[in-house]
Amino acid sequence: MSARRILTGKRLGMTDICNGEENIVVEVENLIDDKEISKIRYTPVNVRGTGIGSSDPSEIIYSGCDCVNLCADNCPCVVRFGPSYNSDGCILVQSCSKPIVECNSMCICGSSCPNRIVQNGLQFKLQVFRTKHKGWGLRTLQDIPLNRFVCEYAGEVIGYKEAYRRAAQQQEDDSNYIIILKEHLTRGKVVKTCVDPTTIGNIGRYINHSCDPNLCMLAVRVDNEIPKLGLFARRKIHQNEELSFDYAGEASLSHEDNAAKNVIEESINKQEAGGVVERKLGACRADGTLALKQCYCETKCCRGFLPRDNDLYSVLENAVDGGSV
Ligand SMILES: C[S@@+](CC[C@H](N)C(=O)[O-])C[C@H]1O[C@@H](n2cnc3c(N)ncnc32)[C@H](O)[C@@H]1O
Fold it and tell me: What is the 3-state secondary structure (H, E, C) of 100-148?
């Protein structure tokens, strides 16, 4: 049985894509069995995958602000939808029901601008560890305050049909990493963003599902309309606690908050897209039928099975791919 190992991204096979984070230190602990962690290509941010047309998550499309001092309520990036974060870097609860748009690569303001949070990456020391029944999981080695950004769920951004194709190839026991984020606009329009960190991804891929999770996933836009999938603490998270989010997207920032269920106004400008995570992809049998996996979140409100996305049976033809409105 192996124990604790401190590995760099390179040693994990998490190599070479971007931002100089290829040497990211990832602590891996396995006190359960002899299983080695599989190699992936590490990317801290989304990368372009198959089936999203000409969209590219690294493209810079939005125009920037020219705030010389730190961006405040009069910054054009903030004015448009109202502030998303407070001065302590915490997400505001109302951000659940409005687009979250950060300052971007064209903005004059620097990296310490309070409207740059998700793009600044990890702020807390996290550890990949072996769980008893859920494969690998991710936990925090530090306390995390309520509403702070924890990590991105990053990987290949792919089209909806490609997500379906990949899901259909999964074996019943395979872990599923594909997330489909659905943002509801007016007139029944739904924008789907599919992120697959199965072979190219960041440490968000190790976060397991819980029916009573400590994280909430929100769409955050920076340089273009393809959102980053940001995971924020929906309560105080204690050192060594496993991180989790609801794969069904049912957990919003706080237990009382129903704002995330609101349908947001469709915007004229693509930059204004935003909304809520609704449902994610469940495990799919090779014959295209969906297999329900038993949930081991061990919470009092456990629903028994991992969430699945019934839409995959029928709506392929109507899919809007790649985060474009
Ligand atoms: C995004 S991955 C999470 C990391 C994964 N555990 C691993 O070992 O790489 C999702 C997969 O983890 C497993 N999983 C996640 N949450 C679970 C839960 N609450 N109960 C059982 N299995 C879970 C399922 O196999 C699921 O398809």
Answer: EECCCCCCCCCCCCCCCCHHHCCCCCEEEEECCCCCEEEEECCCECCCE
Q: Is 69 exposed, middle or buried (0-12, 13-18, 19+ CB in 10 A)?
A: exposed
Which tokens sit at 202? 């960041």
Q: State the residue range of the domain holding 256.
A: 46-123+144-318
Residues with a CB atom less than 6 Å from ligand 1? 133-137, 175-177, 205-206, 208-209, 283, 293, 295-297, 306
In a structure prediction context, what are the per-residue pLDDT tens digits for the chain, which is 325 residues long? Answer: 455 555 554 444 443 323 344 456 677 888 899 888 888 888 889 999 999 999 999 999 999 999 987 898 899 999 989 999 999 999 998 888 889 999 999 999 988 999 999 999 988 988 899 999 999 999 999 999 999 999 999 999 999 899 989 888 888 788 989 998 888 877 788 888 999 999 999 999 999 999 999 999 999 999 999 999 999 999 999 999 999 999 988 777 764 443 333 333 333 233 333 334 444 444 444 444 556 789 999 999 999 998 876 655 444 444 444 443 2
Distance CA 102, CA 116 (A): 6
Which structure tokens are listed for 63? 């125009």
Specify which residues 170 forms β-bridges with.
none
Please indicate, yes or no, if residue 55 is contained in any of the structural domains: yes
CATH number of the CATH domain containing 88: 2.170.270.10
- Tally of structural domains, the chain: 1
Pocket test for ligand 1, best of 28, 134, 172, 231 (most atoms within 8 A of CB): 134
- Whether residue 36 is contained in a domain is answered as no
Q: Does a structural domain hold residue 24? A: no
Residue written as tokens 């790649």?
322
Q: Pairing relation of β-strands 47-48 and 155-158?
A: parallel
The pTM of this model reads: 0.85
Residue 197 alpha carbon, nearest atom of ligand 1: 1
> What angle (nearest 5°) sits at the alpha carbon of residue 20, between those of residues 136 and 230?
50
Asked if residue 23 is part of any domain, the answer here is no
